[in-house]
Amino acid sequence: MTHEQLLERAIRLSIDNVAQGGGPFGAVVARGGEIVAEGVNRVTALHDPTAHAEVQAIRLAAQKLGRFDLSDCVLYASCEPCPMCLGAIYWARLGALYYAATQHDAADAGFDDAFIYRELALTPAQRRLPTATLCREEALEAFRRWREQADRIDY
Amino acid sequence: MTHEQLLERAIRLSIDNVAQGGGPFGAVVARGGEIVAEGVNRVTALHDPTAHAEVQAIRLAAQKLGRFDLSDCVLYASCEPCPMCLGAIYWARLGALYYAATQHDAADAGFDDAFIYRELALTPAQRRLPTATLCREEALEAFRRWREQADRIDY
Question: Which of A37, A77, B22, B61 could pair covalently with B29 via S-S, beta carbons 3.0-4.6 A apart?
Fold first, then answer.
């Protein structure tokens, strides 16, 4: 399948998902032009605030391939990914991203990803999310043990 | 439990998780000082690049409470959340965030969240992730149908 066909598939998923009571988002993970996994927004159905189409497709693709590294795969999203999904794309090391609608189109439909993008660019103290830090010294112990772990799997 | 005790619980989870072969991260979602759900990093064990401690705790808390809105809950994380987890925190509308170690401590241990923070602040064209846009007009149809959906659940 071509990039355009794979993106059209993600768009088809987004349209069909609205009819099924879900959010207007779809995503496809493909490798060598073949679909590995698909995802749609299931936030309200699953009571899972992280169940965005991209996260769903990434999780399923990683499960199917039996590895968390999807660097040989490409993500096709019906809409520009929000910061959470973009973070997931980086952690999964996806090779490339194609998307159709923009975050501004999403905002027009009531999804304010732009707010989260703005918040992330601020320091914790500047954000609207009340944030406090405590116990830093105690927490460093986990990192010390991690570095000492000879058989750790880096990710 | 106090904020400090809840954060100490998240830190304890992060330390124990290293011994169990997982990443050095733990998180707790609490409501009114009571633990609702706990999470540890399970990326390598589950082959799930999104299975960070915070995401795991948020997903479990939302499932337990039967709703995606956790605005009456607080997240305690052993380390400053990465952009993916911070995005999840905003989508879950958590009321507050407490964390212990910083993203710089995480970077010292080999987890380069800072790279993802820098990438998110760039435009798609500037990012190291190859990104392309296609088919925007076709994708707007999902948003049109979403707006027409009288019984939609906004989130």
Answer: B61
Q: Which residues of A touch B133 (CB under 8 A)?
A: 80, 98-100, 102
Q: What single DSSP character describes residue B34?
A: E
pLDDT at B114: 87
Active-site residue, selected from the candidate residues A34, A38, A54, A119: A54
* Model confidence, pTM: 0.96
Q: Select from A13, A28, A75, A140 the residue whose CB has the most chain B CBs within 10 Å, as the one to mutate to test that interface.
A: A140
Rounded Cα gap, residues B69 and A151, in angstroms: 39
Residue A24 in contact with residue A14, Cβ under 8 Å? Answer: yes
Residues 119-148 of B with CB under 8 A from A: 119-121, 124, 129-136, 138-143, 145-147
B132 forms beta bridges with A98
Question: How many CB atoms sit inside 10 A of residue B48's CB?
Answer: 22
From the list A53, A57, A60, A61, the residue with the least C-alpha distance to A79 is A53
C-alpha dist (Å) from residue A40 to A46, A73, A143, B27, B45: 12, 18, 36, 27, 24
pLDDT tens figures, B34-91: 999 999 999 999 999 999 999 999 999 999 999 999 999 999 999 999 999 999 999 9
Q: Which two tokens stand for residue A34?
A: 């073949």
